[in-house]
Design a protein that fits this description.
Blueprint (H helix, E strand, L loop, with lengths): L43 E4 L2 E3 L7 E3 L3 E4 L2
Antiparallel strand pairs: 1-4, 2-3
């Protein structure tokens, strides 16, 4: 696969297997590469996991947003 850089209001969908048991105890890792272009330096990305959860009101649970700044 190639590198993908999210733009504002863009979504990157990735599938991952989750580990852990119970509410708030799940873990997942997604690895990707950003282009080596210096123009991306200082770019801010807001990241959030959305997980299918039959116990949630909308059947989807969301994490808090994590902010990442490309250096």
């Amino acid at each position: 696969g190639g590198a993908t850089l999210a733009r504002p209001a863009s979504r990157i969908l990735a599938r991952a297997s989750l580990g852990g048991v119970g509410a708030g105890a799940g873990t997942a890792t997604w690895r990707g590469q950003l282009p080596g272009d210096p123009a991306f330096s200082g770019t801010t990305l807001d990241l959030r996991w959305l997980v299918r959860d039959p116990g949630a009101a909308s059947s989807v649970a969301a994490t808090e947003t994590a902010r990442m700044i490309v250096w």
